[in-house]
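tool_call: predict_structure(chain=1)
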Amino acid sequence: SSTGYASVMQNIGKTENKGIEVTLNTIWFQNKNFSWNTDWTYSLNREKIKALNSGVTRDEGNLWFVGSPTQVFYDYKKIGIWQLGEEAQAKAFGGFKPGDIKVADMSPKGSEGEGVFSTDDRVIFSRVPKYTFGITNNITYMNFDLMFFIYGRIGQYVKDAYTQLYKPSALENSAPVNYWTPENPSNEYPRPNSGYSTNSYLLQSSLAFRKASFVKIRDITLGYTLPKEWTSKMMVQKLRIYCSLNNFITFTDFPNYDPESNGSMDFPLAKQVLFGINLSL
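tool_result:
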């Protein structure tokens, strides 16, 4: 028999975190019958790897790159689909044809690699948002009260699981997508080709990386507090009834799914309608 450890902890590099968080409260109106105040929050974090062990600047296996955040993706950057009329350019770049995925050429202008597809064309996509913010508005008028909370997360990339359901071989059912054909010159998905498979098609993974910035009106609550002359007859001190809507309104360019789920298709945030009573005896 033998014993041992499955993993060992050790220092393998240095990281740096810098950020700010700001909270502000504003009172727009306040009198006997009407009030409106807003709470604002804003935060950003600039995390990066400062150094890796042995003096290396990149560890592609673990997706660690000096100067970049610890949470990243590393792949080719899709910029469209090769179109009819681009045959010569597509072939020179890497033997591609109209209908194939078109990725960005990241080689510096004038360099030997410019205009030639290679692994050096891969780029780093940060999974960390550039900033987040929240805005909470509280409004009261007479016995009515309204609260709505706006939340935003800007600048992060996610790996969209839906894109990987597309089977470029077209030999089996898959996710319905807007794929390229000569009659439909889409820039979204490549042409079907029976010679391709999800595993062998080199640039299939580049379909997945999408910017998932979003702004949500996450919570809306409308309430009504019964007048005291009513509640006194019921021998209660205070009675408020309310209705809340959660996760109903989202503004985003991210397709297919909830951007807050980070690309996963497992469990989206549910839309909820809640009714309730606050009772004080």
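agent: The longest helix spans residues 87-94. Proceeding to next step.
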